[in-house]
Amino acid sequence: MNRLEFQRLAAERLDDAVALLDAGRYACAYYIAGYAIECALKACIARKTKQEEFPPKDAQKYYIHEIQKLRDIAGLDSAFTQEANQDPTFRANWAVVKDWSEESRYQSRRQQQAQEILDAINDPQHGVLRWLKVNW
User: Fold this and answer.
1) 49 or 125, which is more confident?
2) Contact at 8 Å (CB) between 38 and 67?
């Protein structure tokens, strides 16, 4: 997959999460919202390779589902620190998103939790996806 495909998937997964939230499927909305951020981070990693392609399967460290580790691999630590220090709302939004894990697929979620992660991702001024788009 390449960077543009991951960008497209991030947008699609976010739309899916909103539709699931609207349908009352809160656990699924939460889970899919996290995948939107994972796809966005993988777009950042693909950009970093300068080939626009996501690294090959044998590069196992890239094929994970951990938000914090993907941020580190994307080389976004200093940009994150700068943004978080300047924008406490962004920092709070990141705190919500970073707790997502692939294991959340086995957990139930309330409407508030699904709405909270979507709000943290979608906030037009302080959202996690807005920040990632600057870096992808």
Assistant:
1) 125
2) yes
Give tens-digit pLDDT for 61-84: 566 668 999 999 899 999 999 999
Distances 121 to 70, 73, 78, 98, 130 between C-alpha atoms, Å: 16, 20, 20, 11, 8
Contact 65, 101 (CB under 8 A): yes
pTM (2 decimals)?
0.87
DSSP character string of 18-70: HHHHHTT-HHHHHHHHHHHHHHHHHHHHHHHTSSSBPPPTT-GGGS---HHHH
* Contact (CB, 8 A) for 53 and 72: no
Question: What are the tens digits of pLDDT across the range 13-42?
Answer: 999 999 999 999 999 999 999 999 999 999
Handedness of CA 35, 37, 40, 45 (dihedral sign): negative
Which of the 8 DSSP states describes residue 107?
S
pLDDT of amino acid 102: 83
Under 8 Å between Cβ of 7 and 47: no
- What's the rounded Cα separation, in Å, for the pair 10 and 94? 16
